[in-house]
Design goal:
Blueprint: H1 2-28, E1 42-43, E2 59-64, H2 70-83, E3 90-96, H3 102-109, H4 111-114, E4 118-124, H5 147-150, E5 156-160, E6 164-166, H6 171-174, E7 183-187, E8 205-213, H7 214-219, H8 222-233, H9 241-248, E9 253-255, E10 262-263, H10 269-276, H11 287-295, E11 299-301, H12 315-322, H13 328-335, E12 340-346, E13 352-356, E14 365-372, E15 381-387, E16 390-395, E17 401-404, E18 415-418, E19 428-432, E20 438-442, E21 448-451, E22 462-465, E23 475-479
Parallel strand pairs: 2-3, 2-5, 3-4, 7-9, 10-11
Antiparallel strand pairs: 1-4, 5-8, 6-11, 7-8, 12-15, 12-23, 13-14, 14-18, 15-16, 17-18, 19-20, 21-22
Helix pairs in contact: 10-11
């Protein structure tokens, strides 16, 4: 009996060792192409962890981000929670790299305190997919390929990129029939990319917004197949993880109603109808489907980024939702400029700023010029956010607003200071380009504030000109107060 008991003890120890090894492998696995993760990587929100049963009927939503995508993701989640039905329950799984900060987690986690029926979980992906082909995308875009193994108790999920706005409750979208399919998404016009791999992909979809059948993916061990495909074809992945999904799952991807995933560049009747012509004729959306989606969308995917470009379609909608977040001042500081009093310094010469000649101060409009920096009222501007991403820029000395003269749209149109008139000629988008200065772009004519002929001399005229990327169109906002 003692020998039998000792044998049982040895077997128990061996089992515990194996379990420990499996958990350790799950946490430390940093393979180049991202083998399957484990549920042990998930850090559940502690104050909601005890409500598992209460959230058993919730809508599961997965997203991925790094520090650079914190604010777009926050805006997207805010739009979801602002527009959901009161009784709907959302459970988020936020996937992030190992260096994602605790501060950023708390920023997102604060949404669960602000909105009811919302649980936010974080999944630390550490160094998964660190060596995959990236190009214009970052590593987190590949994280969605690991979802089936990361969430073994979740059978169905909505994947939502951070560059989205959601205008309705997601219950109808979540309940889309997924029988016989792994993924459903917006039809992409890159359907010919399958030819690179010798296959036809008439249902080629965008991976940015999808309904995903995790149960079926697990059953067919697709995470391993994704990993093997990446390792064999890493240099051929033109659209990265989207290529992986569409090629490996070519017979089990299908189009999703465009109202759940339409691109912002196709969200008008004219552009929606035009997009149909670029799709595979065998599977293309009907004109009615696309027009209905443009007129009454549930989700809009902002493939043209409104925090980078004031020409992005539906630019104003994104900024309107950004203002609803608790971090709007931080969003402005990152992408544009915070409200305050500034000198506006030319990147051509740090000793030259925007200002006017005060000899004619009583005129209704005053021509704006490049002048020597002296930090007086003539050179100080109060910059104030209005709405929809636009600012007004008011001279402290003259109490007049920066203005497009005559609201003209021609290159060379004068920039002046004029009494407030409430028109688009006095509304400006201020776009921050990291350490390369700011562009000041008119809502009226979509042209940049420009130093004429890139001259550095005091008295040089300030005008509107089409974007050319030169230092003549770049400025630094130096905050005074």
């Amino acid at each position: 009996m003692r020998k039998l008991a000792r044998l049982r003890l040895i077997l128990m120890v061996l089992c515990l060792v194996n379990i420990f090894c499996d958990i350790s492998k799950a946490v430390t696995d940093t393979t180049n192409f991202g083998s399957s993760g484990k549920e042990s990587l998930i850090n559940l929100d502690s104050d909601k962890d005890s409500k598992t049963d209460e959230y058993s009927d919730a809508i599961s939503i997965a997203m991925a981000l790094d520090e650079n995508y914190l604010y777009p993701t926050l805006v997207s989640m805010t739009s979801m929670l602002e527009n959901k039905n009161k009784d709907s329950k959302y459970v988020y799984y936020i996937m992030h790299p190992g260096d994602f900060s605790e501060k950023s987690k708390k920023t997102l986690q604060s949404l669960s305190a602000k909105y009811s029926n919302c649980v936010i979980n974080f999944i630390d992906m550490e160094n998964k997919y660190k060596n995959v082909k990236q190009g214009h995308v970052t590593t987190p875009t590949y994280y969605r390929l690991s979802l089936p193994d990361l969430l073994p108790n979740v059978d169905k999920i909505i994947w939502m990129d951070g560059d989205t706005l959601i205008f309705k409750d997601l219950n109808e979208m979540f309940n889309v029939d997924m029988k016989n399919y792994y993924f459903k998404g917006f039809l992409d016009n890159a359907w010919r990319f399958g030819e690179d791999f010798g296959v036809e992909t008439p249902n080629y979809i965008c991976a940015g917004v999808m309904v995903v059948n995790l149960k079926e993916l697990r059953k067919d061990d697709m995470v391993k197949k994704f990993s093997d495909f990446i390792e064999e074809n890493n240099d051929k992945l033109k659209q990265h993880d989207q290529t992986v999904i569409n090629i490996v799952c070519k017979d089990k991807v299908c189009k999703l109603d465009p109202k759940y995933c339409i691109f912002n560049r196709h969200a008008t009747k004219k552009t929606a109808e035009k997009y149909i012509c670029s799709l595979n004729p065998k599977t293309a959306y009907s004109k009615e489907e696309m027009v209905n989606a443009a007129n009454d969308p549930t989700v809009i995917h902002f493939v043209h980024k409104p925090w980078k470009d004031q020409k992005a379609p539906l630019f104003n909608l994104w900024w309107d939702h950004a203002k609803k977040t608790e971090c709007f001042e931080e969003i402005k500081e990152k992408y544009t400029v915070k409200d305050g009093i500034y000198t506006i310094e030319s990147l051509l010469d740090s000793n030259k700023v925007l200002g006017v000649d005060l000899k004619n101060i009583n005129r209704s409009s005053l021509n704006v010029k490049l002048i020597d920096k002296k930090i007086n009222g003539n050179q100080l501007f109060k910059v104030t956010y209005i709405k929809d991403g636009y600012y007004e820029i008011k001279s402290l000395e003259t109490d007049k607003l920066l203005n497009v003269s005559g609201a003209k749209k021609d290159d060379g149109t004068n920039v002046d200071e004029h009494s407030k008139n409430g028109t688009d000629s006095q509304k400006w988008f201020v776009f921050k380009k990291q350490n390369d200065g700011w562009s000041i772009i008119s809502k009226c004519n979509q042209k940049c504030v420009d130093v004429s002929k890139a001259k550095k001399e005091a008295g040089t005229n300030i005008q509107c000109w089409s974007f050319n990327g030169t230092d003549a169109q770049k400025f630094k906002f130096k905050k005074v107060s």
